Amino acid sequence: KPPFFPPGAGHRAEGETYLASTEAFPTEQAISERNPRYYGWRVVLAANLGIMVGFSVFAYTFGIFVKPLSHQFGWNREEISQGFAISALAAAVCSPLAGHWLDRYGLRRILLGCMTLFGAAVLALGLLRQPIGHFFATCLVIGAVGNISQIGFAHAISTWFHEYRGRALGLVLAGDGIGLMVFPLIAQSVI
User: Fold this and answer.
1) Fewer CB in a 10 Å sphere around the end CB: N or C, the chain?
2) Which residues contact 11 (CB under 8 A, 6 or more apart)?
3) Which band of pLDDT confidence, cut at 50, 70 and 90, is reported for residue 6?
4) Cβ-contact 140, 76 below 8 angstroms
5) What pLDDT, in 10s, does the model give residues 65-80?
6) CA distance 55 to 141
7) Do 116 and 95 form a contact (C-beta atoms < 8 A)?
8) How confident is the model over 106-144, as pLDDT tens digits?
9) For residue 92, what is the DSSP state?
10) pTM
């Protein structure tokens, strides 16, 4: 069975979304957004998990790591908090650019690149050394690519859904709240 494509790739009749061209799938085989088997709901689940373990993990657990970082490296709390400010500034600067990059280079390319860089930056936090510049650079990367990923997930949902777009976006963004509840507890227990 050929892979499904987002609604923009096919033809849409009133109230129904077709997942591929009418040549590949006759209209009788079209799957509506109302159907739980609609491939877009799998995209919702993947985006929910992506948002849950993405930038939210860094943002919601940052405060838990201030004291251990201060103790380990001798940095004061102001310097460590500047790392979070750098991350927030990078997210603010990259947000307007993200939409342009997504339109120009495509969702898959941008998301794969951002998720790879985000994972590498989070791993780099485990390799921190005394110079605080390494910490600042890592925070810069995490803020920039973590935020672009969230915008990319919302873009993916907008591509897959028309009638249930609000519901799908709400389910995706619930991952942020789940991450807020779960990851601070995990981080606190690990420290």
Assistant:
1) N
2) 18, 21, 22
3) low
4) no
5) 889 888 888 899 999 9
6) 11
7) no
8) 888 888 898 899 999 989 988 888 788 899 999 999 999
9) H
10) 0.73
